[in-house]
Design a protein that fits this description.
Chain lengths: ~130, ~230, ~525
């Protein structure tokens, strides 16, 4: 089973997730969500640690550009993702495993989309070599 | 403050080859502020190196520690229990801190995680610019508060070289021409007359060229008698 | 960390409602987690009996925090807080595992069950590390509002606020507003009513008018702001619960050199016959580039007073809404000409002035004028207001709303509200609506008499802080400040809990309640199956 960890802002993306549930939309069970008050809350260490703990892919989901409730938390989040991607490339794990997505509260289909996108990347790159096979 | 920048992971990884017990030591002072070696950066470095270790089978055991100011013996002494059993320290402090740690722990290899760069200031969040040339013979009063040693690429002392374009140094379009800045500063101060006063050829003895500098503040130095009377470590 | 153990409550939402999840399985899974002192299945937590059962269970067990395994937090958050406080716990001492929306509804079979178990595990690990946050429910909210503005908008806001029984301090930068109000009244009646309400407001004992004032200082938490005003050299303090900024642009017809437009008599006396009115936006880009009703009204007044005068109006288009259409027709019948401009007109010379422009249909045009008038917008002093209250200004130079669609009227500073204005033609009734809307926002904040602050806010560990100023620079709400000790402190009443400062702090000195670093790491590990 693939492991995709998603740090989701509790506003736009959080509401989209609930809506996806209410609409009975299907997305892979591999995607597990951690809610944070804003995409800007997550830092580089959290993202890297997730890979060390065996995540095959990690996403940071924030609100649409220009729509962050906290003005620019999504921009802060993107900067952290960019740095972490660089480090992931340098260590050889692959920056492609990490991505930032922007989802609005009325875009539940985006959850399935981003899950599918990351799943296909993991298939291409292979599972996280550090993941302990259970 | 002192500005430094982290070395690339590849270079650090190469330095750590062959080591096993690694302590990453950061500093809460200058390097924390210029986002190179504070607790956050130590954590990110540790995570990155742990990933490398697992992926490439290096077998590194990495721990993290913080020092209030890595240039002070008393604080570096507090690292002793953490250094026990380690065979190297990756210092994320400036060159001064790294040297202090090495001097205090001569049997544990200290590796520099940073390239210490210059004495500068934050221009805005995340941007750090060199300001002071550390020449030991300050002429800021003659240049409207702008250091010609550090901020002029040629360290000219008596006016621009003429190579600037649009107010920017020919070295880089991001670098303002220091002498243009000096002119405007003296203009705002109403002291363009200071430009008439030539700065003579500089003696570089008080600068780096005279060898490592040693500054003594006599009233703070404990005399031999005081040291004897005090006992223990001075 | 927990002394009394963690309680886990699983909502069965009625029997047989969702066959997907094995609720008993979840129950035994939860019981097996270390630190979980109580596990209970409750039928419909959202129902009154369900709530009662849950409260009784918490009280009886001595647990000091709990996990709700049910549907999404969003819809039920207030309810769970109520359950927490009714059980004698802190209102935020719980976590929610949304097994309905995030497992049962979106996955199949054993995957759904496994996901539900993971979600329960994550919630338990998170709440395990929950630390009680500082929380003040009784911060006083003064029932006085400071309204800053010189014109009709400020007055309208003041009226709305007083109508709800609060008092107003009207702070005007000048003695009286210059030029004319930039609104279009539908008819004479509306205008009379507007002026009358202004006069009434000025004499209302619930309002204090302060003229010729500028803001020197602005301090304090929302609900209890302290301003210091410079009133013609004298320092005057002011306390208020909220601030409404209502800077109002004014309109004035002016000559090119900035003096007010002459009267018809003056024009005749000076022998000026051909008058051209250009909107100020045509050349400067500031303000509107259309022919305004104001220009039309002035032109009509000239033509009525001095029949020999020729007036031409120019602009990109004519904004003639509602009753203005009739006005424009009347103007045309009286010989006032309307020219459409495409692009920038060229203005050359002085007495006579020659204007050349491109008409979209007729091509290149040329006109000689004895006097050129500009329909000028007198922009209000927004910059000084923005600086005094630390509110950003958008690219058009207007006070920036925190979210123009969902939270209009609110600025990034809690408790500071700003009325929006559309330069150009604004119907008076639109202005009245805007004034009412902004006033309502301020009233909403102050209506309860107290403000709730705290909860999921950030806090600085003074020992670890390097005073790098990073948090001050990144915080969108200016919540951090450098305190007495020379270290950063986060003002709880301003913090909105976004965590940007936590992510940035180079010394890991700041953390945030309810979403701490250790909690996030624990959730990650639980999500990735790394916790046994």
């Amino acid at each position: 089973m693939m492991r995709i960890l998603a740090f989701c802002c509790e506003r736009g993306p959080g509401e989209a997730i609930d809506l996806a549930g209410e609409k009975r939309m299907r997305y892979p069970a591999d995607l597990t969500l951690i809610q944070v008050p804003c995409a800007g809350r997550v830092d580089v260490a959290h993202l890297l640690k997730a890979f060390r703990e065996g995540a095959d892919a990690v996403v940071l989901v924030g609100c649409l550009e220009g729509n962050c409730h906290h003005i620019y938390g999504n921009i802060e989040g993107r900067k952290k993702v960019d740095r972490a991607k660089q480090i992931l490339d340098e260590v050889g794990l692959g920056g492609q495993r990490l991505e930032m997505f922007h989802v609005a509260s009325n875009q539940p289909f985006r959850i399935a989309e981003l899950a599918a996108e990351m799943a296909s990347r993991v298939e291409r790159l292979g599972p996280n070599p550090l993941a302990v096979k259970e | 403050m002192i500005i430094g920048e982290q070395k690339r992971l590849e270079e650090i990884s190469g330095m750590l080859d062959g080591h096993r017990g690694i302590l990453i030591a950061g500093c809460r002072s200058c390097v924390a502020i210029c986002l190179a070696g504070g607790e956050k950066e130590v954590a990110v470095m540790a995570e990155s190196l742990r990933l490398i270790s697992s992926l490439r089978g290096k077998g590194w055991e990495i721990e993290e520690a913080m020092v209030e100011r890595q240039c002070e013996k008393e604080w570096v002494a507090e690292l002793r229990p953490r250094i026990e059993g380690k065979d190297c320290v990756l210092s994320l402090a400036c060159g001064v801190g790294a040297q202090t740690v090495q001097a205090m722990y001569p049997r544990v290899r200290v590796l520099p995680g940073l390239n210490t760069s210059n004495m500068g200031a934050p221009e805005e969040s995340g941007i750090f610019v060199e300001k002071c040339g550390g020449c030991g013979d300050c002429v800021l009063h003659l240049t409207g508060g702008i250091c010609p040693i550090a901020r002029c690429a040629k360290s000219l002392l008596n006016g621009p070289c003429g190579g600037s374009q649009g107010g920017k140094c020919e070295v880089s379009p991001d670098t303002p021409c220091a002498w243009e800045e000096i002119y405007h500063s003296l203009e705002s101060l109403g002291r363009l007359d200071l430009l008439e006063e030539p700065i003579p050829p500089k003696s570089w003895l008080p600068a780096r060229d005279g060898g490592p500098r040693r500054i003594v503040r006599k009233e703070a130095v404990l005399t031999e008698e005081q040291k004897r009377l005090k006992g223990g470590k001075a | 960390m927990s002394d009394g153990g963690i309680g886990v409550f699983i909502c069965s939402w009625g029997s047989g409602k969702d066959p997907k999840l094995d609720m008993d399985g979840l129950l035994s899974f939860a019981s097996g987690i270390e630190g979980v002192a109580l596990v209970k299945m409750i039928d419909r937590i959202c129902s009154k009996p369900g709530q009662k059962e849950m409260i009784a269970a918490i009280k009886g067990s001595g647990t000091d925090r709990f996990v709700v395994v049910a549907c999404s937090a969003r819809t039920k958050r207030k309810l769970y807080r109520h359950i927490a406080t009714s059980s004698g716990l802190h209102p935020l001492a719980f976590e929610v595992a949304s097994v309905r929306e995030q497992a049962a509804f979106v996955h199949e079979g054993p995957e759904a069950q496994r996901k539900a178990e993971t979600l329960v595990r994550m919630a338990v690990e998170k709440v395990r590390l929950w630390v009680e946050p500082p929380f003040e429910e009784e911060m006083p909210a003064l029932r006085n509002v400071a309204v800053l503005g010189d014109g009709l908008m400020a007055m309208a806001v003041a009226n709305e606020i007083m109508a709800q029984g609060l008092t107003v301090d009207l702070v005007m930068s000048g003695g009286s507003p210059k030029g004319s109000p930039p609104y279009i009244f539908s008819n004479q009646d509306e205008m009379d009513r507007a002026l009358r309400s202004m006069a009434e407001a000025s004499s209302d004992p619930r309002m204090t008018t302060i003229k010729n004032a500028s803001v020197l200082d602005f301090q304090g938490p929302p609900g209890d702001f302290g301003l210091v005003l410079d009133v013609a050299g004298e320092m005057v303090p002011l306390r208020c619960g909220a601030v409404v900024l209502a800077p109002e642009p004014r309109m004035e017809l002016r000559t090119i050199d900035g003096s007010p437009a002459p009267s018809a008599q003056e024009l005749i006396a000076r022998g000026l016959r051909r008058i051209v009115i250009l909107p100020s936006g045509a050349s400067s880009g500031i303000g509107c580039s259309c022919m305004t009703p104001r220009g039309t009204l002035y032109a009509l007044s000239l033509v009525d007073a001095a029949p020999g005068i020729e007036v031409s109006l120019m602009g990109r288009e004519a904004r003639a809404m509602d009753w203005m259409e009739g006005l424009q027709r009347l103007a045309q019948e009286k010989g006032i000409r309307f020219f459409r401009i495409d692009g920038e007109p060229k203005v050359e010379g002085h007495a006579p002035t020659v204007i050349t422009w491109r008409d979209p249909l007729l091509g290149d045009m040329r006109l000689q004028a004895d006097l050129l008038l500009l329909d000028t917008v007198l922009t209000p002093e927004v910059q000084s207001l923005a600086k005094a209250f630390d509110v950003p200004v958008d690219e058009k130079g207007e006070l920036l709303s925190i979210d123009s669609r969902l939270r209009p009227g609110e600025t990034v500073r809690k408790g500071v509200f700003a009325a929006r204005f559309r330069v150009g033609n604004m119907l008076y009734e639109d202005m009245a609506l805007e004034a009412g809307s902004v006033a309502a926002r301020a009233l909403e904040m102050l209506s309860m008499g107290t403000l709730e602050v705290g909860g999921a806010v950030a806090e600085v560990d003074q020992e670890k802080c390097s005073a790098c100023l990073g948090c001050l620079r990144v915080c969108p709400y200016s919540a951090p400040m450098i305190g007495q000790a020379g270290k950063a402190e986060v003002r709880m009443e301003l913090c909105q809990g976004c965590g940007a400062c936590v992510a940035l702090c180079p010394s890991r000195a700041i953390d945030i309640y309810c979403f701490s670093d250790s909690q996030i790491v624990a959730q990650s590990r639980a999500a990735l199956g790394k916790v046994r």
